[in-house]
Design a protein that fits this description.
Blueprint: H1 7-12, E1 52-57, H2 64-77, E2 83-87, H3 94-106, E3 111-114, H4 123-131, E4 136-139, E5 151-154, H5 157-172, E6 178-184, H6 190-203, E7 209-216, H7 221-234, E8 240-243, H8 246-259, E9 265-270, H9 273-281, E10 286-291, H10 296-309, E11 324-326, E12 331-333, H11 337-340
Parallel strand pairs: 1-2, 1-3, 3-4, 4-5, 5-11, 6-7, 6-8, 8-9, 9-10
Antiparallel strand pairs: 10-12
Helix pairs in contact: 2-10, 5-6, 7-8
């Protein structure tokens, strides 16, 4: 029998890989039947192992996606009788979040899962945990150096834009002089720039399509409605809209309805339940949304549990978990929406 790596070996012995799907788990054991309805993703190895205390620190849940991150982490941890989850009260204040993480370090938790309010600002506390022998699973917003985490798991912002662009492109490829517009998120965020770049790169494959307008919103319902109203007033004729975020998309759809417009198709982003329901109903402009799955928090708990118990990931030959996992931004439309409905966040 091969000897499992030591805890320090798990911290610093990395095997880099990028995964195009959600982490399925650490072994192939079946999930508990009574819990399957509450969590659509398969659980990691349900056979109880070594007790593990996982500290979880994230930003304030002031957005539907962030609230879903918290709920996914909690529900996943509840699957495992040997897992204790120490969860902090989320904060967007970096000093407060650093203090919360330092408290978890002082409690000597076995593993930390951190979704930083600001990856750059929290890099030092990630380093502090790693140097204290506590492996860190860095969730989504990345620290400045890989030395501050054992594993990173997150979404693909560039891939969101790329897949949205290809979806729109395929539907407009036979239309001459097609025109598209973009309702982006906060322009001061790198993720917004990545989503726009992916979208623009996809459209380069369709010479008949031209992006004629772009407006930045703020990932809120109110900003989505206001900025969409401005776009509709400025652009009397276009064929498709790419909206970066389903929360701000609620406001955008209000503005579209108020303007009485139904002459274009809309693609959203993230995977809100309201978007899935509208896509399934299929009586409006919203035809698809591109995922940025909050189920990544459940996968982060699986990774943390595996680290705490010295396990690898089922389906891979290595003894260690990967150094990074990039989740795929699947396109959800009427053809597959039922498959994803249970993962939608409110």
């Amino acid at each position: 029998m091969t000897q499992l790596p030591t805890r320090r070996g798990l911290l610093f012995g990395t095997a880099a890989v990028s995964a195009g799907a959600l982490l399925a788990g650490c072994t192939s054991n079946e999930p508990k039947e009574k819990e399957q309805a509450a969590d659509p993703q398969p659980a990691a190895d349900d056979k109880p192992g070594k007790p593990v205390t996982i500290g979880f620190a994230g930003p304030q849940a002031d957005h539907g996606w962030l609230a879903a991150i918290n709920s996914n982490a909690k529900s996943r941890a509840e699957r495992y009788e040997e897992v204790t989850l120490e969860i902090t009260e989320g904060s967007n204040d970096t000093a407060t979040q650093i203090g919360q993480i330092e408290t978890l370090i002082n409690k000597k938790v076995d593993v930390l899962v951190i979704l930083p309010a600001d990856g750059k600002a929290l890099t030092q506390v990630g380093l502090k945990a790693m140097r204290a022998g506590i492996p860190v699973v860095n969730l989504d917003r990345i620290f400045n150096t890989p030395q501050a985490y054992r594993c990173w798991i997150g979404g693909d912002n560039y891939g969101m834009g790329l897949n949205a662009g290809h979806y729109i492109g395929e539907r407009l490829k036979d239309k001459q002089n097609a025109r598209v517009i973009e309702l982006a998120g906060l322009d001061n965020l790198e993720l917004t720039k990545q989503r726009t770049q992916g979208f623009d790169d996809a459209l380069k494959n369709y010479p008949n399509i031209r992006k004629v307008a772009r407006q930045a919103a703020e990932f809120t319902v109110e900003s989505g409605q206001a900025k969409m109203a401005q776009l509709l007033q400025a652009q009397s004729n276009f064929d498709a809209l790419w909206n970066h975020d389903d929360d701000q998309g609620v406001g955008a759809l209000r503005a579209i309805e108020q303007a009485g417009r139904d002459d274009f198709l809309m693609v959203g982003g993230a995977g809100a339940l309201s978007a899935f329901q509208a896509i399934k109903q299929d009586d409006g402009v919203l035809k698809a949304t591109v995922l940025y799955p909050p189920t990544m928090a459940a996968s982060a708990i699986d990774l943390a549990r595996a680290l705490g118990q010295g396990k690898g990931v089922g389906g891979l030959a290595e003894f260690e978990i990967p150094a990074s996992l990039t989740l795929y931004s699947a396109v959800v439309d009427k053809a597959n929406v039922d498959q994803y409905m249970s993962t939608g966040f409110e």
